[in-house]
Amino acid sequence: MQFLKSPSARNADVLVGVRWFKIAGEARLQRLSGRIIGAQVGIQNGQDRYTMALVLAHEFGHVLGLDHENGVCATMNSRLAVNHPEYCPAPPPGMWVCRLLRADDVRGAVSLYGGTVRRIRGPEFCPR
Ligand SMILES: [Zn+2]
Questions:
Q1: Which fold has domain 13-127?
Q2: Could you say which of 11, 93, 105, 124 is the most buried, measured as most Cβ atoms within 10 Å of its Cβ?
């Protein structure tokens, strides 16, 4: 699956906007016979770009059909703790996660769409 920029909002399957929200973000999904056929994704303005990227990755996870995961570290954890998913370790000062997707997120996508899960290599945190 791939997300591509649409030439017009009218033809887009997913609309993304930065808005004033009380919550970090949300994905409103349109379904037909249980299948996701479109979505509106909103993220809260005023967040730093790292948090916005994390929130957007989470909301796109919903667009792909992933649910919240609150047992292990995942971008799909339902809550953020400052700048990281609730069950993931906090990045050290001046650092940030090198990858937005965690192993559990990838396993979830593979279970829905097929493929294989490869071992994540390299450091967990990178300089901002
Ligand atoms: Zn969510």
A1: Collagenase (Catalytic Domain) (3.40.390)
A2: 105
Phi/psi class of residue 110: alpha, beta or left (left: φ > 0; alpha: ψ in -120 to 50)? alpha
Say whether pLDDT at 114 is over 90. yes
Domain ranges of the chain: 13-127
The pTM (predicted TM-score) of the whole model is 0.87
Q: How much is the average pLDDT of 103-120?
A: 93
Give pLDDT tens digits for 44-102. Answer: 888 888 988 999 999 999 999 999 999 999 999 999 888 899 999 999 999 999 999 99
**CA-CA distance, 54 to 62, in Å (whole number)?**
13
Distance 26 CA to ligand 1 centre (A): 7
**Tell me, what DSSP letter sits at residue 79?**
-
